[in-house]
Amino acid sequence: MRYVALVVQSQSCWTVLLPDFPGMEITAVTLQVALWKAHRQLVDRAIVLNALGVAMPAPMNAADLVSAPGYERAMAAIIAIPGPLSPDGGNVFRFG
To answer: Looking at beta carbons, which pairs linking 28-37 to residues 24 or more positions away fall under 8 Å?
Structure first.
């Protein structure tokens, strides 16, 4: 699955926002670290939701997110996490 991350640079850090997951905001001094942390948090969220038997939310449309008010200066990035591993193509992760 691929989620759009909106990346904003300030004078002292980079901030990654994940609109598909309200409240998930990641900051770091470098862009690479901010994106790595965002990926790690998404994978952790997928593991928790899988353990609860809950499907990950469907990703929002990238064009809609990038053009949303307040994000004019944001850079879009795609953060991918492992896709469905079940043979039925469901949206529940199956590890091991």
So the answer is: 31/7, 34/7, 35/5, 35/7, 35/77, 35/79
0.70 surpassed by pTM: yes
Do residues 35 and 5 lie in contact, with contact meaning Cβ atoms separated by under 8 Å? yes
Burial of 14 (0-12, 13-18, 19+ CB in 10 A): buried
* pLDDT digits 0-9 by tens, 4-59: 888 989 889 999 988 888 889 999 999 999 999 999 999 999 899 989 999 888 88
Euclidean distance between the first and the last CA atom of the chain, given in angstroms as a whole number:
18
- For residue 33, what are its two tokens? 């670290």
Beta bridge partner(s), residue 80: 2
